[in-house]
């Protein structure tokens, strides 16, 4: 009996030591520290701040923002792929699809991997190598996300792309703050440069993820960026509403009807929303109609800033 008790105690001690070892490894591999960072927030500029600028200053600002869009796709995404190609991606200064394998019916940059983190790494690496001198903002998303690029450019108006900038809809996992990939991820050219350089360090930014467990691609991205001094910042409008959404607009409206039945619109979504996620291909076309085609004749909208479409674009 005594021997059995001794074995049990030894087993408990060994188990505890193993758990402590795994926890320590987890902190090392994900770049966690015992001191958590404060939740960071970035707000879109107020309309009044833009109106205070001269017409020439506004035009220069709008023309200085060049957005390169990266859409990660797989063969199973064909219907979404077609919808994104026909709708919002036309509003990017340049949009390219990065696919896990070759698909004959669509042009894409073939990455030859099904692993989402490896796809993301390769896409960012190629984007930096090919376009570091042409674009100052890099927007990555999935094919079920609808993006309003003009609102993204408005949000970026007062941001400096030469500074480390990483934003979207932030979430927290343990000590790690990361941008949820479903809502889209925005990197400045400086953040992308730092990320590109850290890719060559397998200890800080492993190609295959963690040694014991595997993080999702958006969390792994945050770990790599954290080692370069770049931290996730939540994007909000001037009223502190989220502007990168990880749900469809329909779901957000239903939630608002339940939680804010007297003020559904105010409780739902920002007027400056940039993304909605989880949309079907048909819903993307409906969004395109509502955002870009529907007009209320006789009603004049006097925006503080006009953001022109990319030259040669066939956007709506």
UniProtKB/TrEMBL annotation:
<comment type="similarity">
    <text>Belongs to the glycosyltransferase 31 family. Beta3-Gal-T subfamily.</text>
</comment>
<keyword id="KW-0472">Membrane</keyword>
<keyword id="KW-1133">Transmembrane helix</keyword>
<dbReference type="InterPro" id="IPR026050">
    <property type="entry name" value="C1GALT1/C1GALT1_chp1"/>
</dbReference>
<protein>
    <recommendedName>
        <fullName>C1GALT1-specific chaperone 1</fullName>
    </recommendedName>
</protein>
<dbReference type="GO" id="GO:0016263">
    <property type="term" value="F:glycoprotein-N-acetylgalactosamine 3-beta-galactosyltransferase activity"/>
</dbReference>
<keyword id="KW-0812">Transmembrane</keyword>
<dbReference type="GO" id="GO:0016020">
    <property type="term" value="C:membrane"/>
</dbReference>
<dbReference type="GO" id="GO:0006493">
    <property type="term" value="P:protein O-linked glycosylation"/>
</dbReference>
<keyword id="KW-0735">Signal-anchor</keyword>
